[in-house]
UniProtKB/TrEMBL annotation:
Keywords: Signal. The keyword Signal applies. Gene3D superfamilies: Tetratricopeptide repeat domain. The lineage of its organism: Bacteria, Pseudomonadati, Thermodesulfobacteriota, Desulfovibrionia, Desulfovibrionales. Residues 1-24 form the signal peptide. Pfam families: TPR_6 (PF13174). This is Tetratricopeptide repeat protein.
Length: 695
């Protein structure tokens, strides 16, 4: 009987330890034991000390350990320093490399590594692995899409290699997730594979094909306006735009001129939604021009900060068109000017001829210059005037070309020249907002439509998953930047400070517009406070207050309490009073808390009268805020007790005893009442006047 009991107890003990009797009989190795308890750091050391540490199995185990430790950089270092394996070991090495790149936030490289791993796997193994990796379907879609947009902007020798990579990713996508998107893009990328009489998979039933909003004359007016803007002749450009035949198009291009002059986007976008012009609304709501908010110098001819250039330009602009062109030709004929100056003068001549509508001279100059050196306004004006290919005017550096391409493509569409009519909806296509999902599905490669659809989804129901996708795909728009800020805020609120810092560091803070910079600084302040870096938090907070933008009340409160902790009471009171001034926007609980801390600050500065004012006002005005009300009454009672006003102190404490929800509060208040009773001795009726009549 005893042996059976002992065996049962042993069985229970082993079960609690996660072991069966059979497993217990086979003693675990130290490595297995460390793995069971997830002591990854010590497990990696064990692997590194093995005699066969360079074998594929050992290398892969070490890399996996660092991924488990959330150290993808260290895992990638091991993987990249290891020569390629063969067969399934190589598939595992490449797969771990993909996971490491994903952990570092580089989705493009992650997808490329995963793609290479498929070369060593069967179709069934590919499907199993891909479907076991979290959210890989959406990542595969977004990476391919972003690479495709980059491919459109590429005119260098690397374009063929880019096409090859797109095809490889697409083949895997079709194999693992056979859906409409991958079938559509397959035929778009391989039009020769279309079945006879077949369509590319586009559902043309949804498309709204409007009557053209722009006539050829309107396109030329926009070209002349852009040429004038390149010379910073905004009034002249406004005159051209005012002649456009459609009111909505005029509004759009007036907004473009406003942005180029000020760096600000239009505040009211209702006109575009009213007309169901979803792409025009998305252009401004997502702020495709965000990279140029801080500086528009790339759009203008010459150096705006050069006094000599400004004087020469202004002098030429005062002349009649023929006289101005002659003056420029005279300068170009000089043997003393540098090639740089000659290029500037030729570009000046192009801008003048385009803005004046002299197509013959403009065409001659356009065909004789290096278009890649032109300011952006002139590139756009030339493309619209001469129907040239965008690739001829893009920068040589791929990164710069990729950044500029969507801007020029969108503006060209807004001027009536659709760059990709087969794969993108017309810029001025009209469709109601509830058809946006269908329209974006019909044109899955249309960047602006996808931007519009995701914005709509995010406004309806924001989520971290959608924010991650938007931050990756639209990183050069304000929608993408706002998505990063959303992610950073979400991570910091969840106390995931490392992740919050990762998102914050992805944002170019100096280039942010004022309201987004305030949000960035606010998150950074809270991150530094939670990380215990109070000094840095104070410095960041001071930057916030200098912006002139409204400071979030909860951040202001936290900083006020930090100032109080540091005994900087006057600074703390200043922050709290600023909160009190804005109390109309606060909840009653926060209003009550503000009054409480104002009272605490005055008490700390030895101003009991002022402290009493705050405590009593709080207790009277916010009786429903039980915690703050009763704590204020308790604090006020201590002041009255100290002053010998025992009856008042007891009345306040009596309310605390009756209404406190926490036993500790009731006990503390009752203890004070008992202490006051001892001080009072025989009862004295303090309700009667203490006035003494001398006669």
């Amino acid at each position: 009987m005893k042996s059976r009991i002992a065996f049962s107890l042993l069985t229970v003990f082993l079960a609690l330890a996660g072991l069966t009797p059979a497993q217990a009989a086979e003693k675990q190795s130290f490595q297995q034991w460390l793995e069971h308890y997830r002591a990854w750091d010590r497990l990696e050391k064990e692997y590194a000390q093995e005699s066969a540490a360079d074998t594929p199995e050992a290398v892969l185990k070490r890399a996996q350990v660092y991924l488990n430790l959330n150290s993808p950089a260290k895992a990638l270092e091991i993987i990249e320093m290891t020569p390629a394996f063969t067969g399934k070991d190589e598939a595992d090495r490449l797969w771990l490399g993909g996971q490491a790149h994903r952990g570092l936030g580089d989705l493009t490289k992650a997808v490329l590594w995963y793609t290479q791993a498929t070369k060593f796997l069967s179709d069934d193994e590919i499907r199993a692995r891909f479907k076991g990796e979290p959210a890989l379907e959406t990542i595969w879609h977004d990476v391919w899409l972003k690479m495709y947009w980059s491919y459109l902007a590429n005119h260098t020798l690397s374009r063929d290699s880019q096409k090859e990579a797109l095809d490889m990713i697409m083949v895997v996508g079709r194999k693992v997730w056979e859906n409409g998107f991958w079938n559509n893009v397959y035929f778009i990328m391989n039009p020769n594979m279309l079945p006879a009489g077949g369509a590319s998979g586009k559902n043309t039933a949804v498309t709204a094909v409007p009557a053209p909003l722009l006539q050829p004359a309107d396109t030329q007016l926009i070209a002349r306006a852009m040429a004038a803007v390149s010379l910073e002749k905004f009034e002249e450009a406004t005159g051209y735009v005012s002649q456009l035949s459609n009111e909505t198009v005029r509004t759009f291009w007036t907004a473009v001129l406003y942005f180029l002059n000020s760096g600000n986007t239009p505040k009211k976008l209702d006109v575009f939604l009213k007309g169901n012009y979803l792409k025009a609304h998305a252009f401004w709501a997502g702020n495709v021009l965000a990279p140029y908010s801080k500086s528009r110098s790339d759009w203008f001819l010459g150096n705006p900060d050069s006094a000599a250039w400004t004087k020469f330009r202004n002098n030429i602009l005062t002349m009649a068109p023929e006289e101005a062109e002659k003056a420029i030709d005279n300068e170009l004929g000089s043997m003393l000017i540098s090639e740089q100056t000659a290029t500037l003068l030729r570009n000046f001549k192009l801008a003048l001829s385009l803005s004046n509508g002299n197509a013959q001279i403009a065409s001659t100059v356009w065909n004789s210059i290096d278009k890649k050196t032109l300011p952006i306004c002139l590139r756009l004006a030339g493309v619209l005037s001469f129907k040239d290919d965008l690739n001829k005017i893009l920068p040589e550096k791929p990164a710069q070309a990729f950044a500029l391409y969507p801007v020029l493509a969108a503006l060209s569409g807004a001027a009536g020249e659709n760059i990709h009519p087969e794969t993108e909806a017309p810029f001025w296509a009209a469709a109601p907002a509830d058809k946006l999902q269908d329209l974006s599905a019909e044109y899955p490669l249309d960047r602006l439509l996808l931007l519009a659809y995701w914005q709509q989804r995010f406004e309806t129901k924001p989520s971290t998953n959608l924010a991650k996708r938007a931050a990756y795909l639209f990183d050069d728009s304000s929608f993408g930047i706002r998505s990063l800020i959303y992610l950073a805020d979400d991570a910091v609120r969840a106390k995931n400070l490392q992740l919050g810092a990762f998102y914050l560091n992805r944002i170019d803070e100096p280039a942010l517009p004022p309201e987004l910079r305030m949000a960035w600084l606010d998150i950074k302040t809270r991150l530094e406070l939670d990380a215990g870096h109070q000094g840095k938090a104070l410095e960041t907070y001071q930057e916030m207050t200098k912006t002139g933008e409204p400071v979030p009340v909860m951040t202001r409160l936290r900083m006020a309490l930090l100032y109080q902790q540091r005994r900087e009471y006057e600074t703390a009171q200043k922050e709290l009073l600023a909160m009190w001034d804005a109390r109309a926007t606060m909840t009653t609980a926060l209003q009550a808390e503000t009054l409480f801390w104002l009272g605490e600050g005055e008490q700390a500065m030895r101003n009991p009268d002022k402290a009493l004012d705050y405590y009593l006002k709080l207790a009277w005005q916010y009786p429903q805020e039980n915690i703050w009300c009763l704590t204020a009454m308790y604090r006020a009672s201590l002041i009255y007790e100290k002053r010998g006003k025992y009856e008042t102190a007891k009345r306040l404490l009596g309310t605390v005893v009756r209404n406190a929800s926490r036993k500790e509060q009731r006990v503390a208040a009752q203890a004070r009442i008992n202490a006051i009773d001892k001080k009072m001795g025989s009862e004295k009726d303090e309700t009667k006047s203490s006035l003494v009549y001398p006669f």
